[in-house]
From TrEMBL:
Biased segments, Polar residues type: 115-127
Origin: domain of life: Bacteria
Coiled-coil boundaries: none
The name this protein goes by in its record: Integrase catalytic domain-containing protein
Gene Ontology MF: a single term: nucleic acid binding
InterPro entries assigned: Integrase_cat-core, RNaseH-like_sf, RNaseH_sf, Transposase_IS3/IS150/IS904
Pfam families according to UniProt: rve_3 (PF13683)
Length: 127
């Protein structure tokens, strides 16, 4: 067991068990290591990480992927990856960004909310 983390034991509020708890195949620390960051940088990959314990960096992505799965993915069948990629881009550009009402944006689609925000930002603050 050298080089591997020791098993942790369950101490949940529901029950106590001496059985080892399943470990993730890759620990989160590997994603923040200097070596992995250099690899990402060398391969043109931009990492998106917030501070430890901050959930907001994932909230937007998780919300989007939840909608993608429930509104689109589970209703479709694809014959190959190219068809899937094309269909996902069509969902994002023609439905999600341009027509789908967004509750947090006042019931308007994201593209409409962005245009309104940019228009407001360009108005003079005072006369």
């Amino acid at each position: 067991m050298a080089g591997r983390p020791r098993p942790r034991y369950s101490v949940s509020s529901y029950s106590y068990s001496n059985n080892p708890v399943l470990q993730r195949p890759v620990e989160p620390a590997q994603y923040t290591s200097d070596e992995f960051q250099r690899w990402c940088s060398g391969n043109g990959i931009t990492q998106s990480m917030g501070a430890v314990g901050v959930c907001w960096d994932n909230a937007v992505a998780e919300n989007f992927f939840s909608h993608l799965k429930t509104e689109f993915y589970h209703h479709e069948r694809f014959t190959n990856r190219a068809d899937a990629r094309t269909a996902v881009m069509d969902y994002i550009e023609s439905w999600y960004n341009r027509r789908r009402p967004n509750r947090r944006a006042g019931g308007v689609p994201p593209a409409t909310a962005l245009t309104a925000h940019q228009t407001r930002s360009q108005e003079p603050l005072a006369a």
